[in-house]
Amino acid sequence: MVNLATLSKEEKIKICRTYWLLGLALLPLVWIINVIWFFKEAFLKSNPIPEIRSYVLRSAVGAVIYMTGIITWIIVYQTYRGEWGETAWKLALIVPIGKI
């Protein structure tokens, strides 16, 4: 892992922006890593870099929205799949032998 203290301002912004862009590819774990890794740089330093703060906030909001959507889908699917009949089985990734 790279030590952020040894990087220039431009390199930090580039890494933070790259993580944010990777998160746009529906990879919320990258957004979570971005928030954890750059949180101190964005909010706890006496002179935070505005660009990094922006990317960290976007990453946090994106991860929360994505995870909320996934958790909602899991709850809805697990709750109502019995009522959906054949459609629920077609949505399943692992189908028991003999079910379809």
Question: Can you describe what's shown?
Answer:
With 100 residues, this protein is mainly alpha-helical. 69% of the residues lie in helices and 0% in strands. It is built from four helices and no strands. α1 runs parallel beside α3 and α2 packs antiparallel against α3. The radius of gyration is 20 Å and the shape is elongated.
Q: Radius of gyration over alpha carbons?
A: 20 Å
Proportion of residues in extended strands: under 5%
For the residues shown, what is the average pLDDT? 89
Q: Assign an overall shape.
A: elongated
SSE order: HHHH
Q: Tell me the structural class.
A: mainly alpha
Total strands: 0
In whole angstroms, the N-to-C terminal distance is 47 Å
Helix % is: 55-70%
Major sheet attributes: none
List unreliable stretches of 5+ residues.
none
Count of separate DSSP helical elements: 4
Secondary structure topology:
Elements: H1 9-23, H2 28-44, H3 50-80, H4 86-91
Helix pairs in contact: 1-2, 1-3, 2-3
Spell out the key features of this protein:
mainly alpha
Summary of the model, kept short:
With 100 residues, this protein is an all-alpha fold.
